[in-house]
Each structure stands twice: as C-alpha cells, then as structure tokens.
Amino acid sequence: MATTAEIKTSFTSKHVEDNEKGVLSSHISDSSLQYDEETVKRIKRKIDIRLVVAGMGADIDLTGTNYSTIVAVFFPTYTVFQPLMTVLARKIGPRIFMGFITVAWGLVMVGMGLVNNWRELAGLRVVLGLFEAGLFPAAVFLISSWYIRHETGKRIGLFYLLGSAISSFGGILAYGLQQMHRLQGHAGWRWIFIIEGVLTVAIGLAGFVLIIDFPEDARRTRWFLTDREIDIMIDRVEKDRGDAHVTPFVLREYLSYAFEWQGWLLAVNFLMTAIVIYAVSYFLPIVLMQGLGFGVAEAQTLTAPCFLFGTLLGLTESWLSDKYKTRGIIVVINALLQIVGVALLGYAKNNGVRYFGAFILTGSCNANIPAALTYQSNNITGQWRRAFGSGLIVGAGGVGGIIGGLVFRDQDAPDYRPGLWTCFIAAAITVVSVGITTVTMGRRNKRQERGEVIFDTPGFKFTL
C-alpha cells in the first residue's frame, strides 16, 4: 500500500491519457504496484458480495392527524443525526457500527408491535429515526470508499434497489402476516412489526460477520482479502480521486463543508426525489383503494409490480450511467417520467391508465434515489468531505420524507390534488436543480483544464 512518503506530485503520460478518457489519475499512487484488469475484476466480485449483503386502526387511534404525525416524527432524528452518524461509522468501523444499529432497529420494530396507543408508537418512531439515520449514509460512504467513480453507480443502485425489490413484497407479506390475527392473543398488525423486527435483528447479527470494513481497516479480515488485493483497491481509488487515505478528523474543518455550494445543490436533487418516493411509498395503497376502488388485498398486491419496475429501471440506468460516465441526465430523465406518471395517475379517467401512471411514477422515483446518490458521491472528494456529504444528502432525504409524509391528506380524498401537485413541483425543481448543477460544474471543469485545482486534488473533474 502506498505510504505518505511514497506520495508523488507529478503525472505520467499514462495518467494524462487516462484523464483525457475521463478517468482521473491522481498524484497519489504507488507506481510499483502492478495488476491487470482481470485481477481487479476478481477483487471487485469478492467485495461486491460483501457490500450488498393491516388492522392497526382498530386498536390504535389513527384518525385525524395521528397517522401523519406517526409518519412525520421519524424524520427529525433521522435528519439531524446524519452527519454525526457518518463520523461514527468512520471511527468505529462499518462492520460494528452497521451491525449494531441494525439490531437496535429490529428491536425497536418488535417494540412497535407491542404498543398500546399511537403516542407510544410515535415515540418509538422517533427512536427508529435515530438508528436508521446511520445505515444509508454509512453504506453509500462505504461503497464509494472501495470503488472508483464510474463503478459506484451500479453498486449503489444494487444496494438500494435490491432492498427496494424485497420491500416491494412488503404489502403482500403484511397481508399474509395479518392472517395471524389473534395468534397468541396478538392482533394481525402487531405480528407484522414483530416478525419483521425479528428478521431485522437476525440480519444485523449476520452483519457483524459479513460487512466489510473501510479499505485501510480491512486487513482485520484478511481471510477475505489479501494484503495485495487491498493495496490494489486503494491504489485504484488514489488514481481516481486521490482520497483513499483517511486524514485526521478536525471538527471545524468538517463543519466548514456546510458552506460549499455544490453539496447543497446536489442535496436538493435528492430532497425533491425523496418527497416523491416517500409520498408514493406511504400513500400509494391508499390512493389505489380510495381513488381507484381496489380492495385492501388488491391494493397491497398491486404496489409490488410498481416497485419491481423501479428496480429494473434503476439497475439498467445505473449500468448505463457507469458505462458512459454520465450522471445528471439520468436524474433528469427520471424526474420527467415522474411528471408523466403524476399526470396519468391524477388526471386520467380510465383506471387502467391511472394504474399505469402509478407504475411509471413509482418506478421512476424509485430509480432516481440511487441516481441522485451516485451523482453526489462522484462529485466530492476527501474522506471527511464525503462523510459530511453522505450525511447531508441523506439528511435532505429525511426532510423530503417529512414533506412527502404530510401531503396526501384524508380530507383530499379521493383526488388528492395537493399531494399530486407537490409531486409535480418536486420533479420540476429536480430538473432545474440538475440544470444549475451541470452548468456550474461544467464551468469549473473548463477552468480546471486551464489549471484550476478542484478540492485541492490535481486532476479532479466533476462528473456531469
């Protein structure tokens, strides 16, 4: 592995050639480390495997604003604790950190199945937000630490979209678990939380063993990767963006990243997408029942194909995005599809057409989550800047969750116009935001070609 003494400050002709092809070659590299593409593919496969590892209302009063409150109280802790959680993940290590919060998350879910009123449920949702705040940003941070920039799209997509595909059957699973109604004296909705909580605990315990650490700490699991394989992956990241080696944590410097414009613009893209995906996730079954006239079982079943389409669309886009080294256009395409989907769902007369609109809307906003995350992760460098950026963007998603969880109101049934127009506006803002980001980053890339250094990293260019 390259040491500080081995840091070089000049580029070879091969580095320049790589830059012209869109692959950054950093000044931090160990030129003595030799490896071929087949070796890199074999190592990536090994790392890939490790990284991508109803009836309640009758018992608990969910009338009026109670349900929306329960939805919303999750997000303050989920949002506020994001930046802190990424620091803890880097300090403690993802294997211990992510394993612990997943077990704690599962235990909270079990508790949610044992509550007696909506206030207790709301309180546990607050605690759930705290634990869940650490998982997603830590995972994105971890993935970006192991791979070069044009390899992260499909990995982030796979991580998020496989989980989404499994979750798409949540409605069907929930309907099945409801059939356990009165077993051991518990209502069916309680069994949903209890069983899913137990499964989450089991996954968290497995994570203590299976989750990979950050590259510089991965030698603890050398039975999984050899020292040379770790050195190769670190060397590739150094050549790509020059930040494979962690620097000392300085709180003042860490907080100063909040004043960098590009982080906030990239977070806006994710915030707007989050508004739509949370609105769809929470309220699509309600819209299908009240607006399109389906029953409970039908509504829960019909949401699954919508999310599965999002998984297929997102994985395809992630692969194309990596292949052609482009990010912003994917986010824009999905935002435009969201506008089409909202229009069909909200204003078409035929129920089949309206369901097709739900299909497009759900699929495109689901696919846009990894697209927006990849767009952000590709355009920042530095270990702690990326840690802050991961917390900021996922925290922005939490704000989007608060908005998305409140815009589909009971009094707006069956048309839900305010909710639909919120989704319209959010998708339109995404298009504008990506346009601004593309123009500003493109201008800085041109200045970089004339000698400007971006993020104190010679050779670094934004990925548009």
Automatic annotation (TrEMBL):
Keywords: Membrane, Transmembrane, Transmembrane helix, Transport
GO cellular component terms attached to this protein's record: membrane
Classification via PANTHER family: MAJOR FACILITATOR SUPERFAMILY (MFS) PROFILE DOMAIN-CONTAINING PROTEIN-RELATED, PERMEASE-RELATED
InterPro entries for this protein: MFS, MFS_dom, MFS_trans_sf
Coiled-coil residues: none
SUPFAM superfamilies: MFS general substrate transporter (SSF103473)
Keyword Membrane: yes
Bilayer disposition of the protein: Multi-pass membrane protein
Residue stretches making up the Major facilitator superfamily (MFS) profile domain: 22-445
Family annotation (PROSITE patterns): MFS
GO molecular function: transmembrane transporter activity
Classification via Pfam families: MFS_1
Main localisation: membrane
Regions crossing the membrane: 67-89, 96-115, 127-148, 157-177, 189-212, 264-288, 294-316, 328-348, 354-375, 387-407, 419-440
The organism of origin for this protein: Aspergillus mulundensis
Lineage, broadest ranks: Eukaryota, Fungi, Dikarya, Ascomycota, Pezizomycotina
Keyword Transport appears in the UniProt entry: yes
Name of the molecule in the record: Major facilitator superfamily (MFS) profile domain-containing protein
Organism domain of life: Eukaryota
Family affiliation: Belongs to the major facilitator superfamily.
Cellular compartments annotated: Membrane
